[in-house]
Fold this protein.
Amino acid sequence: MWRIVLELCSGLALLVLGAGFWAVVKSPRFFEGLLADSSELRAFTDFLGTNRIVEEARDVEPVFGSYGANIDFFTKVHLESLRRTRAMVLALAVPMILGSYLLGAWYMMTNAVVFLLPGVFPIPASAKNNTVTLVHTIALNIHRWHEVESIACFDYCTRQNPRLAELHTLVTNLARS
């Protein structure tokens, strides 16, 4: 009986860890996909509203030396936090899965499956929201940068960091409207 109780507790913990692990694993791909999808970006800006983006962008400053450095910094911090979270979750989950072998091989296999199970589901809304917040920050920087140095902004978003080309086009069009 104690094995079953212990397995239920470890299984629940591994399910929670697995959900977090797969959310951070899928987030970078979601980020790249979002930046490349003009219809999703349009839905995002429509949801926020042009006026809100324009107003919020007015307060953006090149805190890290330039608007491009702002974008690079925020993106790097976001991706690094995902990498570290992924590593921490694995550091907890792997010993739990391996330790469950002490209960029996079937327990270990069950725990491994429970940890992997959330990987088959779509990325959770909370992870999407976290990524969309980054895109919002980038959009504000692009909008402001376009207002003060449109040529440098264009060069950065289309040549130096071409994954921002769709967002740049959208934000540039907001600036014109």
